[in-house]
Each structure stands twice: as structure tokens, then as C-alpha cells.
Amino acid sequence: DVKVTQSSRYLVKRTGEKVFLECVQDMDHENMFWYRQDPGLGLRLIYFSYDVKMKEKGDIPEGYSVSREKKERFSLILESASTNQTSMYLCASSPGLAVLAKNIQYFGAGTRLSVL
Amino acid sequence: AQRVTQPEKLLSVFKGAPVELKCNYSYSGSPELFWYVQYSRQRLQLLLRHISRESIKGFTADLNKGETSFHLKKPFAQEEDSAMYYCALSGLNTGGFKTIFGAGTRLFVKA
Question: Which CATH architecture group holds A4-115?
Fold first, then answer.
């Protein structure tokens, strides 16, 4: 079974703090993703990475950055947390793009971040 | 632009009734379509994909290219089907490895 592990289930931070969300996958997947999950808005892609040290902006990258120093680890960084970043954050991984139909995403359990 | 639309935010049905969760997409070319499900307190996971033409937990979904739809159906809903359902597409026009998700439909099956 593919395992995607997010380091924290719940986080409470203060406005202006720097926040790190960590994600590790154990299936040697090339691709990793960070999403925000908000009611009524579905999953919105923040950033993704298709290789070590490679990153691409998703749909809502403002206020976030990412780091991928090792293949198995993808970190999401909130440089200066704000209250509108209170959300559920989901990490996902997927195998390399050999066949699109196999482009299944495997998700972590999520981190619920509250910024006060 | 590539887009996935799920018109219903909430769908409530009685146990044993048929259920259909609607999904329409906008895409230039041939996308791969998926349904993901998130049960309470569980992680989001793949339910089924159109290429497999499979039935999972009694659910099926048919890709209708003419109507650009990929509705999820089950003839007899069960209480354990209550969950959040996301329709999603992937394709070369999305950047290949990216997946575009709809806003989701919460299904509530009443006893």
C-alpha cells in the first residue's frame, strides 16, 4: 500500500508565524502535490513537484512556498501565516507519467491548520 | 480552459434509492476521468476511473464524450456510501501529471 504521511494532523499557529507542513511518501513516486481543501471550493492546487528540486505553481500559490530536497519529501511553507490560510491541507503523490490512466493520486490524512 | 463541474454540493437520498452524482467537464482532447471519495475521518482515495470500466462498491460511471459528462451512479444506496465525492480529470492539457478536481458533492444516505 502506498503511504503518504503528513507530519501533523492539527496545527494552531499565530498570525505572522512561519509554518512548515511536511509530507513523506514511501512509494518512490516522482510527483508530489499540495492542496487546500475548503468547503464548497473543493481541492485547490497550491504547488506541485515532478522531480527533486523541481517545483511548479498551482492555482493558488500566493503566500506559500515549497521545498523538495529529497524524492520522498515535499514541504509546504507558509512564510507569514495569515488567518485566511486557515484550512485543511492535503498532500498527495502520484507515479511518473507513463500512462495517464495510471495517474492516480494518493493522499495523506491531511493537516488542519488554524491561524489565530 | 480545463474545468470539472459538480453542480450539487449536497445530495440526500434514502437507503435503497438510486443515486446519481453529476459531473461535467470541459477539456480539449481526451481526458482521463476519475472519481475520488472521502469517508468521514478517512483520507481521500480513488473510487474508480473510467478507463477501467469497473464497478466499485456498486458504483459505476460512464464517460459520455458527447455530453462531456462522467456521472457516478449506484442503483441502491447504502448508509455507508455517505461521504464526500470528487470528480477529477487528468490529461496532457493539464500538464499531464496534474489532476483537476471538482468542488465535490456530499452524499448523505438516510436510513
Answer: Sandwich (2.60)
DSSP per-residue string spanning B2-18:
-EEE---SEEEEETTS-
Residue B34 one-letter amino acid? F
Neighbouring CB atoms inside 10 A of A40's CB total 7
pLDDT digits (tens, 9 = 90+) for A78-91: 999 999 999 999 99
What does the pLDDT look like over B60-108, one tens digit per residue?
998 898 899 999 999 999 999 999 999 999 877 666 678 899 999 999 9
pLDDT in tens, A14-31: 999 999 999 999 988 889
Helix-then-strand count for chain B, H and E: 0, 11
Interface of A with B in 36-75 (CB under 8 A): 40-43, 45, 48, 50, 56, 58
Are B86 and A42 within 8 A, CB to CB?
yes
Domain boundaries, chain B: 3-110
Architecture of domain B3-110: Sandwich (2.60)
Identify which of A91, A56, A52, A47 has the alpha carbon closest to the alpha carbon of residue A68.
A52
Q: Determine the longest span between alpha carbons in chain B, in angstroms.
A: 43
Q: Are A100 and B103 within 8 A, CB to CB?
A: no
Q: Which spans in B63-103 are helix H?
A: none
